[in-house]
Amino acid sequence: MPLAVHANEKPLATKVLVIGHRGASALRPEHTLASYGKAIADGADFIEPDLVMTKDGVPVARHENEIGGTTDVAAHPEFAARKTTKTVDGQAVTGWFTEDFTLAELKTLRARERLPELRSTQYDGAFQIPTLDEIIDFVAAESATRGRLIGIIPEIKHGTYFQRAGLPLEDRVLAILAAHAYTRTAPVEIQSFEIANLRYLRGKLGNGHRNIRLLQLIDDADQRPYDVVAAGGRLTYGEMCTPAGLRAIATYADAIGPNIRAIIPLAKDGTLGRPTPLVHDAHAAKLELHPYTFRPENQFQARNFWQGSDPKAFNAAGSIAEIRAYLDAGIDAFFTDDPALGRKALDAR
Questions:
Q1: How far is CA 269 from CA 62, 287, 315, 325, in A?
Q2: Span 195-219, mean pLDDT?
Q3: Are the C-beta atoms of 105 and 121 separated by less than 8 Å?
Q4: Which domains are seen in the chain, by residue range?
Q5: Global pTM value
Q6: What is the per-residue pLDDT across 212-244, written as a single tens digit (0 to 9) for each?
Q7: How far, in Å, are 27, 106, 215, 347 from residue 221 at the CA level?
Q8: What pLDDT digit, counting tens, does each position of 142-154 carry?
Q9: CA distance linking residue 315 with residue 296, whole number of Å
Q10: Distance between the two ends of the chain, CA-based, in angstroms?
């Protein structure tokens, strides 16, 4: 089927990068060394650890600070009393939270597949929760073995929440990056859905850490960054994606990370529509675009790329075709749950 989109926008970056979203999360439990290792083996240029904080101030890799869905914590009777409800970024969340556990306690847990109804659970119970230090050491060893640089793109999760909890991530992450020889020179890109912490990091980094770049993540157009909400502000992500908003982002960040559908939305019938001005406008502001997330199952893809009618079916060809449409639109990097497919889509161009 011919692609519906050919914007022919030239990427701003000299090389389009494949980012292993939470590692190779379509194939291994997310945010484990096994997931990162699979992503690297399959050709990822960067691996992405989402970072949250432990009770004793150690950044660890979890998509959220609530870990009931991604670990076996519910099967540990010694931690049953720690199940609670908290308000995280304005939303009530019930479960177990990393900030209520020491690192030693978290190390007794094992990772589980976050989407067991969709993806294999064969690796449940096999892997620990890694720290940022462990991830850096692992990537450094992989880089030396494979003879190529592998970047790290950590996301600071819930920045305002952890600051208010007395467990700020920003300075701790910078200190860990500075403590490792590998991350003093290898490509690093720190990302956040909030604004204030990226501005803070820009001030801290100055011009002395040229290997560290900053990525402003972008949520749905009608949503607001939580630090804006907490400060009583009204700025939306949609306003941030106007030409003026993008120029403001460019004063502290190097790239934006929108949802892929903000670049090419879906039509009413679920097929791929036509590109928005976002790529052009971001490039005009000298910002790269690193959108998220390409996934290999039918249900995450535009309908014209589906194979068969089962939403849960693994569809490699569809994912590759969809990625190519976005490459034609001019993106500079992209997050994918299956970096092998991302590599195929990119290398075949």
A1: 35, 31, 19, 18
A2: 93
A3: no
A4: 17-63+112-347 (3.20.20.190)
A5: 0.96
A6: 999 999 999 999 999 999 999 999 999 999 999
A7: 31, 36, 17, 32
A8: 999 999 999 999 9
A9: 5
A10: 17
